Amino acid sequence: MDETTRQATRQWTLAQPAVSAFVASAVRDFRDRDDVLQNVAIAVIESYESYDANSPFVPWAIGIAKRQVGLYLRRRGRDPLVFDDDAVACLALAFDEEAQARSAAFDFLADCIGRLDGRARTLIDLRYRDDRKPAAIASQLDMTPNSVAKALQRIRDQLRECIHQKSFEADIQ
Q: How far apart are CA 73 and CA 71, in angstroms?
């Protein structure tokens, strides 16, 4: 596999849940949905060389999905429950905005996690980086599983508040 195909595959793997949700919002039949999503995946891989690496991948992939959904809808044009082009464009815009918001939230999350220290950072690293369950963490840190679970909940609340605050500050600017 060449490097371009490898990069395209990596990017597609990360974008696929958002693109799949977009396709599912416009294509109601699950068999057709799978076919459209496969066509999107093929189109993304085939046109990856035209992708500008300086722009976000998910909106670019949703743009390709929008065209594939449009082709599907034109083929199904006589179906009264099919969206028109304007409705699909609105859905694409909404998914693009959501993808950008999630991208920003992930950036904020990384910064908020970076601000954790001491036991909070250790607990988060053990739970999410090392994928350990509370019982395993508890035995390692000489805690009870219940206290680990409660501490993780408090840390998640703290991270959620940090992300919310950063989002609010970003909206003000």
A: 5
pTM over 0.85: no
Other beta carbons within 10 angstroms of residue 26's beta carbon come to 22
For each of the domains in the chain, give its residue range(s) and CATH number, in order of start. Answer: 1-101 (1.10.1740), 116-173 (1.10.10)
Which tens digits make up the pLDDT trace of 49-101? Answer: 999 988 889 889 989 998 998 888 878 765 555 566 777 777 777 777 777 77
CB 26 within 8 A of CB 73: yes
Contact 61, 44 (CB under 8 A): yes
CA proximity to 88, closest of 109, 63, 108: 63
Q: Residues 107-164: pLDDT tens digits?
A: 788 889 989 989 999 999 999 888 889 999 999 999 999 999 999 999 999 998 998 8
CB–CB of 137/126 below 8 Å? yes
**What counts of helices (H) and strands (E) characterise the chain?**
7, 0
The single-letter code of the amino acid at 159 is: L
Structural tokens at position 118: 């001491």
Residues near 140 by Cβ (< 8 Å), separated by ≥ 6? Answer: 126, 132
